[in-house]
Target: LADA_0G12838g1_1
Amino acid sequence: MLQYTRPLDMRYDAKQQSFKISEPSHKVPICCMFLCQFDVKKGNVLVWSKTSPNVPEIPLENLEFKTIPSGVHEVQKDTISFVIPKGGKLEEVYYGMSCFEQNGLSLTENSEHLDRSELQMYSLGVIVDANFRYKGVSKSKFYDWKPNQFISATEYIDDIRDLLSHWLRRNVSSSVSNGQVGSAVRDFELFETYFDSNCIKADTATLSSPMLRRSWQHSGTFTGTPSTLSEKQPHMLESLTQWFSFLGPLFLPLWKASLLRQRILIIVDNGVSFEKCNSLAYCLSILSLIPHSISDRLHQDPLQPIYTIGMTDIDLLTQHVSEALSKGKDDYQIPGFVACTADEILEDREELYDICLKVNNRDSLPEIKMSDGKSIKATPHELELYEKLVVTILGYELSHDEKEKIAKLVEPTTWSQYFIDGFYWWATAGYMRPSFHESEEESAPDLDRDNLDVVLSLVGYFHERIASLYDALKEEVETSEDQTVTLSPIFLSANSLDCFSLRDYEFLETVCRYWFDRPLKVKSIDCRIIC
Model:
């Protein structure tokens, strides 16, 4: 499988009518580097950190809880992404990532008893400022695109993972030789040297672009174990196909929530990778972007991924809500975000999110609920659409067992649809289906495509849907003689929505209000839809 190890710039190429990929000319220099530890006596602690003197002071309170979150102790290694708000607000943030590693699971492999004195549980990470610019320095256009800022810290994953593993091996070896198994060796020279080679410096202003001409010092320079290509960290977007398969038709209502810029909370079950869930947060942001083809007519900020959060972020999220309410507007909107947590107590704080996705263990089905506790399932049309996309984009047929499993994620067929489907079956002897069903015409899948090609096809599909929905709604808004735009259910069918779903009615009403500042009403379904 083809893997890209740098952030990928996914831009729409108007000439080729497709998305293309480019890579950044440079990394964002490190603002801060740190090491956190789970101590059996003290709990999570920040044991070492270093911040460049050339950047504003970065608040590191509760950093140890972001980088060693609840539930991560169930895995041996993981990668955690997070943000640190500037000025205590989510409008502008620092981006961070850390690599977690422990030996606790290996210590209990052959014994039920864990010698806590031998436990090594650390998280090493970096924090960057993707908006870093020096006055008079030409800036890289790559980081002008906000989605590229979202993954600016992940450029360092391979190095940080290598540095931590090397340091832990040396730490354990040194502790054993000194007869102090499990005690931390306070030797951070390796981290200090790496930080000094990759941080923001005063002389950066002499470069034509930040860090562009610097000879980067990768971890292998200091550990003597340079990473091989096969070990490189895949790009966050490469997990899109896995999530599309895992969530099944639930992926579609989740995408709609992202398009509405709702606050999405992902509850991570014990043993579920934070790295994968953080990647889902990024994927949802990318899939809900306003496409280039209509960006000159419709401006909407990307859905902000804030990645890993916990109980210590409750005050921040509460303030986020309070600021929206304090504006005193009847039509206020709380800015959306997508976040991951293993602290299930956040699920009970219904004022902090709009919808909640629960990612359970592999044998359990995912589930989505609204903040008021109502469950969200896929509509029958979303199931049809998902099955079609699996064939035409992912390139395979769902097995009988897979179909039975995802059927549990779908709400029952409405009586109106049941009646109309039955009428068509009776009137045409089963030869015709109503127009609200997905077309049965399927293009032959290309089985030779690599994962990245499939990912780009999925992104292209969702972006095309956004553009076509905008154009269709715009035409209805401009031709409507009334202030309230009235639509027939047939409009939903023509735009790959479920004409029997009240949730899709509400989706259209909200989209029209956000995009065109016009009220919208969908007529109730009746049997004339069969005409």
